[in-house]
Amino acid sequence: MADALLELRAVHGWYGPAHVLQGIDLHVMPGEIVALVGRNGAGKTTSICAAMGLLPRSAGSIRFDGVEMIGKPVHARFAAGLGYVPEERRIVAGLTVRENLRLGMLAVRAGAAAERRAIDEVAARFPRLAERFGQQAATMSGGEQQMLAIARALLSRPKMILLDEPSEGIMPALVDEMAQLFVDLRADGMTLLLVEQNVELALEISDRAYVLDQGMIVHEGTSADFLADPEIRERYCSV
Amino acid sequence: MELDLILAQLFTGVALGAVFVLMSVGLSVIFGMLGIVNFAHGAFYMIGAYVGIFVLTLTGSFWIALALTPILVGVFGLFVERILVRPLYGRGPDYPLLLTFGLAYALVELVRVVFGSDGVPFDTPELLAGGFDLGDLGYYPAYRLFVIAFTVLILLVLWVVIERTRFGLIVRAGARDPRILSVLGIDVARVWLLAFGIGTGLAALAGLLAAPMRSVNPEMGVAVLVEAFVVTVIGGMGSLLGGAIAGMAVGIVVSLTSLWMPQMATMSMFALMTLVLIIRPQGLFGRDDLAR
Questions:
Q1: What domain range includes position B32?
Q2: Residue A79 to residue B183, Cβ atoms within 8 A
Q3: Is B134 inside a domain boundary?
Q4: Are A231 and A38 within 8 A, CB to CB?
Q5: N or C: where does chain A have the smaller number of CB atoms within 10 Å of the terminal CB?
Q6: Is A84 part of the contact surface with chain B (CB cutoff 8 Å)?
Q7: Using CB atoms, which residue from A56, A94, A103 is nearest to B180?
């Protein structure tokens, strides 16, 4: 895939002695939403951790925006334009909502005025957050914290965002709101790679999907095809 | 017992406490950011006093020594982190703990070889040699007042840096969740390096400030390390305010106990720590998520 934004080729990954990723090949084109689905422990989270540089040991090729990322530290991958929203501990407790947002601008080194402008701009997309700037971030609901983490990842204007289980532990009303947000982001040209337990949701908003099983990709195709084929979902995605 | 004597001893306790505060803030920064229990902190304190003497002899100015010592020892701390501590990250907390433990012994022996085992005199700087007549409150040495005032100044600067600057936001977030910083583009290794350097510099500053009040010898850091740990535990790991209050409290308790029951002075500090731990296991201002 010559013009893929993110391309993993024969990526292997280890946690200690555990050989978790056993040769992952996937790519994400600019402006796409791509979903990674599969059972617990299939290697979904590990795959995006590998892309972000968060695995203790990985091998193969991970090209982002034409540049090889294997061997580069996490902060260098961020600088290249990769955003990441983690599965747990999305926000930093002890800091206010605004301070959490400012964390997203730390590496950009914009001036105070530019920082305020960027935060206001992102806040326009997240009215719930704008009301709570001075509040301790940890006192918000799980869904609001997730929105905050997504807003924070958007602040540095990344080229692509990796999202790990964004709908987990979030009340249904907010899940719909979030799904709409992802679709809106794509309309604005953002590229997303999404790990989801909620397969229906992931397939509804994504363009393409990969099914993982035991550290390997076992199916790939358009999300529309997967939606039309309940058998694959039954076989690889039911818990 | 006369009131003025008690008040004088109280002030002495606050001055002593100021030294504890600087020590415990450094310990707390290093533990909070790097997760390292730094057993070499007392040795850095001692090195601070000796480097202070060295600069003082060279330049003849206490003020130049006061400005240069934390920087010189802080830079030494940068090298220690980069060369000795960094290779041990990711191997569990025992490795850096053992390393700093051994480093403390090595530094003490090194100083013993170079400067000898005997104490070295460190005169109170001329400008601060006198005392203040505080009227009914008695007479109080100017140097101790200076130590208190200077520590307050340092704490204010630290507070402004931590609460109001970009670096401070990095430190606050990093103490909670270093992984988030890295995925938001911060080179965490560089932040840790700086934190270690700052902590080391603060220890050196404490050692220099303490030098005219307590004797300067190669073992001077051993007792103060224990005192600083006690202060850090009482104040709560990672809390600047907690460290400041606990430092003062320990200084005052030790100082007042030594007035009435000198043999109990050291014990009083542990008694206070035990009491605090029973009531608040996370320390006075510590986060309860760290206590677990």
A1: 17-220
A2: no
A3: yes
A4: no
A5: C
A6: yes
A7: A103
Q: Which domain holds residue A215?
A: 6-93+159-237
What does each C-alpha distance from A137 to A98, A115, A162 come to in angstroms? Answer: 8, 19, 22
What CA–CA distance (Å, rounded) separates A75 from A79? 6
**What is the number of structural domains in chain B?**
1
Asked whether residue A64 is domain-assigned, the answer is: yes
pLDDT per residue as tens, chain A (239 positions): 568 999 999 999 998 889 999 999 999 999 999 999 998 889 999 999 999 999 989 999 999 999 999 999 999 999 999 999 998 767 898 899 999 999 999 888 788 888 889 888 888 888 888 888 999 999 998 888 999 999 999 999 999 999 999 988 888 888 999 999 999 999 999 999 999 988 889 999 999 999 999 999 999 999 999 888 888 777 776 65
Distance CA A94, CA A136 (A): 7
A89 falls within a domain: yes
Strand partners, A163: A85, A194
With CA atoms as reference, report the closest residue to B40 among B113, B110, B134: B110
- In-domain check, residue A1: no
Facing residue for A94 by CB, picked from B172, B184, B185: B172
The CATH number of whichever domain residue A28 belongs to comes to 3.40.50.300
Q: Is A175 exposed, middle or buried (0-12, 13-18, 19+ CB in 10 A)?
A: middle
DSSP state of B83: I
Residue A4 identity: A
